[in-house]
């Protein structure tokens, strides 16, 4: 190991996946750090963490609450705090150092901090208040004026609402968060937020102002109607101030707060807002405002649920979109095309509106034949904002208490109101870091990747929803179960899914262990269904695998075991009944429901067994292993024939059996051949639905039918991913043909243009086209499997993934018979790298024979790949491909193609042509 460019250093510190988080209520937070080095094959052999209350003492090397001591381990991810009990409200400072592979310590890292919020009922002094009655959907305002004798050295607001709320202090917004406190089952759990408002405090009179809308608490929810949790929104605010002289002050919600209706006459998440600018009361959240007309707030009994610190990232405006085109299909109507199907609101700028004139804003994902927005697919969601002008020369308005899913914005107003900036799209999403990037030589597949990300962005608001636009927008468990593996590649979902939504899911589980179809649970939605309820197993599995924190397993383990108990109790000799959604929305013959149910049952038992072992629950691990075996045998007995075919002979059946590992080894190849045959028999199209589509390509590519997988991905005609792109889709659609080949939308009853389930193929794209794979044996990407599988139309691909160990990068180009690959593996991780080559002597790294390059160990050649093990660092591999003689071509083809390709002469010729094309490029 020779030194290259310096030693190891610590570049990033995270607590529970956040940089210096404010207001956590986790008293055993997990510390992670990112290591960098210019040297190859560098790793951590030990660490030491110091945590203290005094930054100066910490700088001197003293941590008064925790000194971990020197711990000999490679672990740099989610190291649990194990010091003195952490106190509510307290800020702690921490730093870490690590020892490298040579046993040399790094310098101490920069210090970072984390601050606790309130930890339980005893820390709350505020009482819940409600506003004056002003119509069930009105947005109420509250204000409290209070004197501050001294400058504040520290001021924190701890606040939440039954409804959705926004705060102002002395006329300034406290934050840019939207839709706080987020959707949870308020009967069980309400998230509170913590804001640092020190800079907004001033000596003398101060004001806190709050706006409170019905939101999920009292407004319309999906299919459940209005007022699911209660009729009256309520507010809870506790402002704690420390003054320069050490005195402290606490301002809390109580009936001394004053309340009034504001300009938002009504607000609803599904229906939109009505805003009357004539009712604006400038200065209402500043000192000295005359609130004589306001009335006293009333006490509200508050919720049954417990208060917890916000677990997931807040919803914020993450992007702005300017219109790419404007049309005027009717007098007084302008339709703005934002060029992208998005979720959020608009910022409106209007001119010369007469006081009382009404501006109507409607939203649609596509246009109707007359050029107006098409809203039939929104069903009963009115998704309309009304702005009643105040009569100013210029007026600006942005709805704050509603969300729409749209690309086109239709504004009806007097002609003179329109100006150059009438509409700006304000994109809302969870505000979490991007995780991955993915780009290839195919413009269509790049657009597909963008569409997937846009659908994730628009459906990850507080909870993962099926769709963001129609009167549904529910946390359908099946959708996120299939999409989670893709979601974690695109964005950091550690908190959104791993902390927040899994808590929603546990809250939603029934006493009998059934996991419902949506979380939060809503009336009229069932539970216990295959593929949907299994989210309680699959989502923790993905989160644990991605972020490497076993606490994901321990937090969810009881819930998983109860789900397994439910499945066992509701099966007959290990076969599940013919109930549930099956392979929902199949594009052809769907598999028998009991087959789907039994397949999901076996897979969940297998995953729970694996997770139980990891957390040392060996009894349960044994039970689950045995259960998995029995379910697999029952599956084989009931559905699998000796020739490898399955009952129903459906593509989905084959996909699930292959992907969930349900087949006896001797039948795998045969079953895979049946799948390939079934796909070919349909003219190379999928007939699968929500559960099988995401697994379809891996079932093929993982079983010697890589070419068939690429054919499906490359298929331009409907049904296919590329068809949606060719039709101009900018998000993933609920149906392959949400826009039918004649350009018209299909049946509006179930037709979302922003439904990520079929976008779950993103996971396969990252893994197979770009080649970045986690190693299930070493969670958290401690070991990475780099295995691009070039094929189809692709001549290059590149992806990055910001793992908990640091940035992984892999990019390859296939040109003039050469395969070249650049690679970056973070410190404290290793990788197995597969290079397409018949023998290792044809592979170079950094210009040298790869097997003798620094930090590169040759393992073996197998299945047309040379395998190497590398440590951290940047690498440049080159391989001369051996497609020289026609003889060699056909040898390669026999291995690379599926059996049915070989049988069909035409297919082989077209494949040959494609390979030749790639080689020419
Ligand atoms: C949703 C789906 C969901 C399904 C359950 C639909 O209405 O939009 O995405 O999973 O119901 O079958």
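Sequence proposed for the structure above (921 residues):
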């Amino acid at each position: 190991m020779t030194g290259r460019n310096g030693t190891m250093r610590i570049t990033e510190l995270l607590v529970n996946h956040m940089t210096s988080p404010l207001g956590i209520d986790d008293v055993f937070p997990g510390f992670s750090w990112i290591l960098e080095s210019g040297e190859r094959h560098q790793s951590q052999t030990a660490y030491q963490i110091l945590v203290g209350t005094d930054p100066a003492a910490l700088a001197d090397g003293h941590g008064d609450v925790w000194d971990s001591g020197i711990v000999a381990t490679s672990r740099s991810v989610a190291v649990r705090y194990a010091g003195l009990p952490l106190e509510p409200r307290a800020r702690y400072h921490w730093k870490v150092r690590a020892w490298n592979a040579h046993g040399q310590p790094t310098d101490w890292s920069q210090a970072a901090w984390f601050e606790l919020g309130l930890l339980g009922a005893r820390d709350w002094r505020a009482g819940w208040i409600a506003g004056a009655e002003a119509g069930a959907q009105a947005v109420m305002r509250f204000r409290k004026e209070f004197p501050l004798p001294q400058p504040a050295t520290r001021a924190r607001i701890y606040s939440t609402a039954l409804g959705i709320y926004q705060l102002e202090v002395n006329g300034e917004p406290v934050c840019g968060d939207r839709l706080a406190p987020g959707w949870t089952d308020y009967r069980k759990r309400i998230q509170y937020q913590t804001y640092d408002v020190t800079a907004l405090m001033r000596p003398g009179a101060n004001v806190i102002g709050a706006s409170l809308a019905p939101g999920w608490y009292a407004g319309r929810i999906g299919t459940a109607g209005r007022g699911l949790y209660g009729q009256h929104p309520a507010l809870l605010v506790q402002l704690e101030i420390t003054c320069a002289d050490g005195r402290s002050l606490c301002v809390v919600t109580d009936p001394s707060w004053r309340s009034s209706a504001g300009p938002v006459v009504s607000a609803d998440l599904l229906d939109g807002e009505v805003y009357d600018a004539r009712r604006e009361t400038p200065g209402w959240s500043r000192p000295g405002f005359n609130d004589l007309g306001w009335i006293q707030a009333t006490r509200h009994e508050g919720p049954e649920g417990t208060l917890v610190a916000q677990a997931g990232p807040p919803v914020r405006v993450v992007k702005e979109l300017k219109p790419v085109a404007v049309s005027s299909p009717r007098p007084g109507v302008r339709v703005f095309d934002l060029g992208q199907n998005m979720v959020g609101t608009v910022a409106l700028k209007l001119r010369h509106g007469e006081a009382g004139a009404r501006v109507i804003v409607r939203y649609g994902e596509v246009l109707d034949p007359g050029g107006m927005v098409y809203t039939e697919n929104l069903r009963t969601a009115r998704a309309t904002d009304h702005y009643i002008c105040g009569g100013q020369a210029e007026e600006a308005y942005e709805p704050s208490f509603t969300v729409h899913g749209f690309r086109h914005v239709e504004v009806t107003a007097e002609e003179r109101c329109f100006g150059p900036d009438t509409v700006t799209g304000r994109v809302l999403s969870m505000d979490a870091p991007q995780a991955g990037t993915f780009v290839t030589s195919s413009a269509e597949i790049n657009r597909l990747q963008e569409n997937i990300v846009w659908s994730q962005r628009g459906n990850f608001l507080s909870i993962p929803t099926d769709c963001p636009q129609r009167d549904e927008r529910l946390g359908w468990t099946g959708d996120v179960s299939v999409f989670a593996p893709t979601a974690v590649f695109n964005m950091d979902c550690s908190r959104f899914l791993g902390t927040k939504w899994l808590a929603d899911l546990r809250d939603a589980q029934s006493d009998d262990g059934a996991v419902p179809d949506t979380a939060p649970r809503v009336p009229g939605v069932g539970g216990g269904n295959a593929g949907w309820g299994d989210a309680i197993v699959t989502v923790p599995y993905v989160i644990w695998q991605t972020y490497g924190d076993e606490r994901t397993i321990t937090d969810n383990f009881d819930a998983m075991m109860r789900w397994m108990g439910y499945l066992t109790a509701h099966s007959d000799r290990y076969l599940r009944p013919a109930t549930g959604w099956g392979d929902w929305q199949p594009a052809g013959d769907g598999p028998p429901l009991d087959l789907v149910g039994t397949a999901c049952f076996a897979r969940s038992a297998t995953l729970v067994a694996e997770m139980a072992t990891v957390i040392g629950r060996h009894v349960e691990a044994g039970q689950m292993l045995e259960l998995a075996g029995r379910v697999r045998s029952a599956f084989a007995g009931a559905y699998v024939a000796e020739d490898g075919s399955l009952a129903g002979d459906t593509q989905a059946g084959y996909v699930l059996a292959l992907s969930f590992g349900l087949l006896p080894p001797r039948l795998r190849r045969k079953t895979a051949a049946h799948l390939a045959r079934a796909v070919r028999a349909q003219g190379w199209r999928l007939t699968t639905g929500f559960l099988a589509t995401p697994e379809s390509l891996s079932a093929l590519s993982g079983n010697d039918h890589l070419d068939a997988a690429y054919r499906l991905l490359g298929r331009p005609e409907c049904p296919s991913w590329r068809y949606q792109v060719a039709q101009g889709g900018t998000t993933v659609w609920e149906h392959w043909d949400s826009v039918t080949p004649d350009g018209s939308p299909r049946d509006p009853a179930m037709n979302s243009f922003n439904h990520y389930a079929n976008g779950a193929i993103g996971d396969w794209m990252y893994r197979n086209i770009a080649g970045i794979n986690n190693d299930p044996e070493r969670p958290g990407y401690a070991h990475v499997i780099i295995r691009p599988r070039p094929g189809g139309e692709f001549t290059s691909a590149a992806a990055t993934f910001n793992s908990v160990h640091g940035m992984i990068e892999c990019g390859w180009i296939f040109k003039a018979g050469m395969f070249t690959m650049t690679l970056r593996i973070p410190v404290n991780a290793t990788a197995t790298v597969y290079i397409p080559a018949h023998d290792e002597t044809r592979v170079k790294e950094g210009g040298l024979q790869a097997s003798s390059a620094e930090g590169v160990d040759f393992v073996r050649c197998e299945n047309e790949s040379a395998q190497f093990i590398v440590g951290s660092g940047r690498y440049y591999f080159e391989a001369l491909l051996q497609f020289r003689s026609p003889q060699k071509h056909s040898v390669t083809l026999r291995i690379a193609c599926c059996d049915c390709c070989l049988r069909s002469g035409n297919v082989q010729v077209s494949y040959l042509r494609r390979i030749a094309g790639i080689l020419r490029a």
